[in-house]
């Protein structure tokens, strides 16, 4: 079980990471809005070269992929905060084997749900 000071530290880390993710998603939203508005300008009547259109489409796809990835990260952070608030006694225990994940691991990856051994097994497909 984590000490109270450790839980407070992890809560702060989760809140900081959550704020960063929200800022990143806000920037994506601003860029998407600017992109839509620029398409409404009078210059939009001029056709771009096909290569330019392809580049713009690729950039939009990359931005959407980034927003999706950032959204999943935000979801994991919020889930970790819910676990922390709802059951602080078991927060930091592995969801598979129940052993402590470890403060160092949680400090590096505050939304971690698995100990290193279980995570390695999961990634290896065992």
Spell out the key features of this protein.
126 residues; mainly alpha; 4 helices; elongated
Could you please describe the fold and organization of this structure?
Helix 1 packs antiparallel against helix 2. 70% of the residues lie in helices and 0% in strands. The protein is mainly α and 126 residues long. It is elongated, with a radius of gyration of 21 Å. The chain has a domain of 86 residues.
Question: What are the SSEs and their pairings?
Answer:
Blueprint: H1 4-39, H2 50-86, H3 103-108, H4 116-124
Helix pairs in contact: 1-2
Structural class: mainly alpha
- Shape descriptor reads elongated
Cα(first) to Cα(last) distance is: 27 Å
The helicity comes to 55-70%
Structural Rg: 21 Å
Number of strands: 0
Q: Could you describe the largest sheet, including whether it forms a barrel?
A: none
- The share of residues in extended strands comes to under 5%
Q: What's the tally of helices?
A: 4
Low-confidence stretches: none
Order of helices and strands: HHHH
Indicate the mean pLDDT. Answer: 83
């Amino acid at each position: 079980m984590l000490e109270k000071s450790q839980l407070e530290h992890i809560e702060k880390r989760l809140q900081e990471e959550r704020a960063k993710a929200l800022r990143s998603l806000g920037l994506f939203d601003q860029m998407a809005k600017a992109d839509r508005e620029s398409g409404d300008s009078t210059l939009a009547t001029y056709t771009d070269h096909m290569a330019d259109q392809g580049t713009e489409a690729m950039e939009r796809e990359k931005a959407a992929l980034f927003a999706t990835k950032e959204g999943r990260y935000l979801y994991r952070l919020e889930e970790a905060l819910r676990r922390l608030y709802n059951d602080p006694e078991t927060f930091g225990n592995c969801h598979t084997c129940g052993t402590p994940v470890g403060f160092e691991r949680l400090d590096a990856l505050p939304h971690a749900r698995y100990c290193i051994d279980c995570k390695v097994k999961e990634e290896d497909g065992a």
